[in-house]
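Render this sequence as a predicted structure.
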Amino acid sequence: MSRIFRRLAPLLATLAILARSPFFARGFDGESLLAPALASRVSCAVFDDGSRADASAIYRGALVSEYDVSPYGKRFTGYGIGSWSDQEVQDSSANRPGFEVGSWLGGFGHDWTLFQHGLWGYGVQGGRVKIDPKSGGLYESRINSVSGNLHVSIYDALWRFDVMFGFGKNWHKQREFSWSDENSFSTTQWLVGAEFSARVEKGYTRIEPLVNFRVLNLSEPMRAERYVAATSRQAAEFADASYRLKLGSRFSWEHATALGTLKPYLVATWSHEFGKREIYTVGDSTPFPIAYRYARHRAPRDRFDLGGGLGAALRDQLDVYLQYDVGFAKEYVDYTFLAGFNKKF
């Protein structure tokens, strides 16, 4: 546990600096899959003496429900991600020595107006995962992956609901150290996810509690079991699913500048896995994570994630953002760095 807290020290120091500054921002999905264009002015405030004061569109107090939330006609998005994770030894068995994972992913997407309070779109993604065993490990693995997804967002001024379906193909190349042998095979995965979030705003501050549920299925051919299973277990085709619930909230702020609006943010979430825990994922900050197994390790049942970063809305047409997250659980830690943009038309 002390090792995890030592690794969290850089993130906690960064968050402490942000907390003392006038800047804060939002998470990966920015304005979710939406990009609503707010009215340039909202209703006027009337004081007791009869005077009136126009409210700026940046100010988002109790007037939020009176905003005009007609969306942009379309939006183009892109992102890149790098992550590193560490699974500690789970027991003294030579079949579970612990492992390290490095991954690089990139993707883009396109969204269109569906109706006044809805958007739909697609996304595509490619990535590479490198899995290396620690001392005593039997094999290493490399994964190249491509995937696509379709998504729909329905929203109002104070809430949103997102649904997504995705399908991916992964190509594995594994090397067995003791046999000096290599094995290649492919796996398939599909994903269905839904997220509901609310919006509470006061002044320049926004709080967004969220509930997310994800079902991810992974299928492997029989020959993959040659390295995954213990020698005492007969090889068989693998097909199972992960059922993950995520609860948490985003906290964001806004600061107007001459070039646009800076949007620093913090994110805190807790995830719980209801399945058998045989499936790990990387790239959880992206719309479509890459799934894999390693020996007979079990993924964490519960996981906490802390994140922070900075976004910038430039002239109401282009958003750019940087994000850093740390996920930690018993015997497991994951670090993710993400950069992306949203171009609205």
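Summary. Confidence is low (pLDDT under 50) at residues 14-70. The longest strand covers residues 159-176.
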